[in-house]
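Hi U.,

Before I forget, here's the chain from the pilot set. I'm dumping it here mostly so it's searchable later in email.
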Amino acid sequence: MRIVIAEDDSLLREGLALLLRAEALDVVATAGNPGDFLAAVDAHRPEVAIVDVRMPPTHTDEGIVAAVEARRRHPGLAVLVLSAYVERAFATELLAQGGARLGYLLKERVGRVEEFLDALHRVADGGTAVDPEVVAQLLVRGRSDTRLDRLSPRERDVLALMAEGLGNAAIAERLVVTQGAVHKHIRSIFAKLDLTPTDRTDRRVAAVLHYLEEAQGRG
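Structure:
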């Protein structure tokens, strides 16, 4: 797996590179600003880009803008966005473009190496990885919507894990239920939210996140 890292904090940037190289992953370039990041993506054509949300010069949304531009230039690029704290608008802006090969994690998740690597591989393999705290805050913000109120507590648990990017088997393992039970919950969730279910994880997650984005806008 060829990886480019864009992070303006030099200690975190080099720490990430060391961590990934220790896992036998190929970090082909690192960058401390959006311009160098885009140049590295163009030059090395990585499979995955790890990008900080806030980068120079204004430390607002430069990372998100660069990630969007990198995917425009290289549509197959997987992007894992890192943020110091939950930024709902940036998360939904990026993920609303389509769930496939996209992730949004809090930086504190990097310290949980197994979880971080699992998210990285999931995104590289074409899936989605969304930090549980991001999902929780989106769900809480959208609770005023009557369609979310239709969900049972267990269906809300399943929806949160779906939004994180987990497949049926992983959800069943996390909740200690059968895959058949998970499938029934998912069918019920889509019916209650007026969404058409699909067997492709990336599409169903994109649909759920799109719904949550609308709920956030009305909240």
